[in-house]
């Protein structure tokens, strides 16, 4: 985003998009396309879509939906939660899935992360390890971590994107963090 | 192994349930203070909280993945002007 782009708010760009200004729509796309791409890679159920065509389709459907809905956008804040909610709908259309409740007891998740084990198993915080651990998580975990710990969305914004209640967002985030920690404490074979 | 206990009036299980809320600063002042007391007096919960905090920090510090140029080009072609 250039300094000039940054002076124009999302609200303004969405308003101009609703009025049919193609350059405003183009600027909105350029401002948020990378974030939508990252979210799609995180939330797609079969792992990050390595297939470029799939990622392009999710992006295309997201921004076309945004253009159609621009006149109904009433948010006073950033457009990003709104766009990622549209992206999630696009992902769900292309990858229908049955979302099962996470019934794993919290203590079990915590023990997998080393709780009540008397110590041991240092956390590997290197970038490569974190990337690998994150990629190995279930899509529901990658999704909530992306929203809350990468995009810094509020609970309310994450709930809007996912369609979950605020309480479910908080629960899912806590569980995802514990599973991430458990992954980071796993030692590769042979060490 | 079962070494859960009560420290600062809170059971380890209660503290476990609130760790992320505490990390994100969403607990009331009183609740946060009691959790901190428990964490200071309970090695297992204190260690877990430190490790979850470190994992979240490491995740937040990852550089943003960039949009591949071929995806950007194909998106520009796919969106009508």
**Rough shape of chain A?**
elongated
Give the quaternary arrangement of the chains. Answer: heterodimer
Estimate nothing, just give the exact number of structural domains of chain A.
Answer: 2
Derived from helix and strand composition plus strand pairing, the structural class of chain B reads mainly alpha
Radius of gyration of chain A: 19 Å
Interface with most residues: A-B, 46 and 42 residues
Summarize model confidence as the mean pLDDT of chain A: 87
Major sheet description of chain B: 2 strands, antiparallel
List keywords for this structure.
A: 191 residues; mainly alpha; Rna Polymerase Sigma Factor, Chain: A; Arc Repressor Mutant, subunit A; 2 domains; 65% helix; B: 81 residues
Task: Describe this structure in a few short sentences.
Chain A has helices at residues 3-6, 10-18, 22-43, 52-69, 80-94, 106-112, 127-135, 139-150, 155-162, 166-185. With 191 residues, chain A is mainly alpha-helical. In chain A, 40% of the residues are buried.
